Amino acid sequence: MNTNLFLSINDLAGKNPLLDSVMVFSADSLIYILFLAAFVCVAYLAYKRQWRQIMIVGIALAVSFVIRFILSKLFISDRPFVDHTITQLLPHAANQSFPSDHATAAFAIALAILALTRLKKTGWILLAIAAMIGFARIYTGVHYPLDVIGGLITAIAGVSITLGITKLLPTKQSVQFDAKSDT
Length: 183
Fold this sequence. Notes:
By secondary structure, the chain is mostly helical. The chain is built from 8 helices and no strands.
C-alpha cells in the first residue's frame, strides 16, 4: 500500500513544469520559510515575555528529534528512488528515509506552536505548510508516504511528551518566594 500510494503520487511528477516547480520548491525550500515563521513566533513570544512557552516549544522540538533519531536506527528504510524507477525531481543522497527529517521538523514546529503556545491561527497555518512539505517530498520522489507519516507521528509524540513534561514544571503562579526566608 505504501509503495502503491507513493507511485500514484509520484506518477504526477514530470507532467506539468509549473506544478513540478512548485513541488520542488515546497520539498526543498519551503521549510526555510517555516523556520523563519517559527523564529518570528519565538521573537514575538520573547517580546511578550512568554519565556515558559518558548522553553516548552524548544523542549518539544528536542524531544521530537530524539525520537526521530531512535526510530531512524530501529527502522532502516531505503529511499524510493533506490527501490524503484521513478521520476525524481529532487536530487538526494541514497541515505536513511524513515522517518522524514523534513516532515519531523515541519510538523514538530507547527504542532508545538499550535499546541504549546497561544498562537493558534499561526499554528494552523504552519501545520498546512508542514503538510505541503510532506506531500511535496513524496511527489518529488525522495520519500514514501510512511516516511512522512512517521515524521508526523514522531512530532505528535514529541509534543505530547512535552505536554506531559510541562505539567511537572512550575508555573509562575506556583512559584512563591518568601522575602523573609532569605535571612
